Amino acid sequence: MQIQISIQRPILTMLAVAGIGMWAVTSLSATGSQAAAATQAEDHAIGGEHDAAVIAKASLDVGREQTKQLVLEHKKEIYEYQLQLLEQQAASTQSAQDREKVTQTRQTLLSIIKDRAASEKLLTDALYALWDAQGTEVDDADIATDFSLDQAPVSLTQGISAYFHDNEYKAHFGFDHLATDIRTAQGTEIHAPADGVVVQATDNGLGYSYITLAHADGQYQTVYGHVSRIDVRTGDAVHAGDIIGLSGGAVGARGSGPYTTGSHLHFAMKHRGSDGKYRLIDPLPYLLHANGRIVNDQMESGV
């Protein structure tokens, strides 16, 4: 994936909130002090014999706060990039209705940028929604032999726009990309890649919307982000190939949220370990395995 930011209208850069760097450093310092104070208080309360779960949660909370501050440091670049995408979309569209929609979206985004509180709230709310959907803990184990996908949720023919642990994505947005972004047109049908049950179907309006399915008795979960439409409800049973919603990711569109580089499906996978906790795994090997199997079946059947 290659992301280039080249703003044709330099005046847009003035819209970013001044002083974000100093604000972020101050917040990080305060966060560190609060974490240290909490640890000292806990030492006093339990004689220094920490419960492993308490320590893990404290570490996770501090790590997420630091990630949030890094994201806010990238606020200017994130919003400028979205404005650039909108300008490109306006230049390429042939429909007067589409151009008007782009203009309205751009005006809304500009008004958010001018309001520091609103712009930071949009970024943090979307970040928390992302964490709620997929978490942050990672399992870098090789592809499992006890589970496979029957198909990809959308066609892979348009390629991948961002990979698991994508360095350029992290440099741009300020946090690690723990999924595979599949290029696909806005509003593409999303198919369940295996039999399962819907465990989350969250519509956050113009924020980050997502669907989560559980498979293999809950041992694995698949997550679908930036969805523009949700066709299932929590508790629904689904079969491989069922349509569960429509893809999104277009800037300013319903379900996209701010962390998007255009129309695509954000696809994440999680595995439940022996401790009962879900950890993110790289979805690409599972996608390629399913895609290869489909191609082989088609060749054998003469399709």
Features:
single chain, 303 residues, alpha+beta, eight-stranded antiparallel sheet, three-stranded antiparallel sheet, disordered N terminus
What does it look like?
With 303 residues, the chain is an alpha+beta fold. The chain is built from 7 helices and 11 strands. It has helices at 20-46, 52-73, 75-92, 96-114, 116-134, 167-173, 284-301, and strands spanning 160-162, 180-183, 189-191, 196-202, 210-215, 220-225, 229-230, 237-238, 243-246, 264-272, 278-281. The strands form 2 sheets. Strands 1, 2, 4, 5, 6, 8, 10 and 11 form an 8-stranded antiparallel sheet that branches. A 3-stranded antiparallel sheet has the order 3-9-7, with no helix packed on it. Helix 1 runs antiparallel to helix 2 (52-73) and helix 3 packs antiparallel against helix 4 (96-114). The longest helix is centred in the first third of the chain and has 27 residues, at 20-46. Residues 1-49 and 295-303 have low confidence and may be disordered.
Cα(first) to Cα(last) distance is 32 Å
Care to count the β-strands? 11
Q: What best-fitting shape do the alpha-carbon axes yield?
A: globular
Radius of gyration: 21 Å
Helix content: 40-55%
Strand content: 15-25%
Total of helices:
7
Note the main sheet. Answer: 8 strands, antiparallel
Would you identify the regions where 5 or more consecutive residues have pLDDT less than 50?
1-49, 295-303
* SS-derived structural category: alpha+beta
Mean pLDDT: 77
SSE string, helix = H, strand = E? HHHHHEHEEEEEEEEEEH
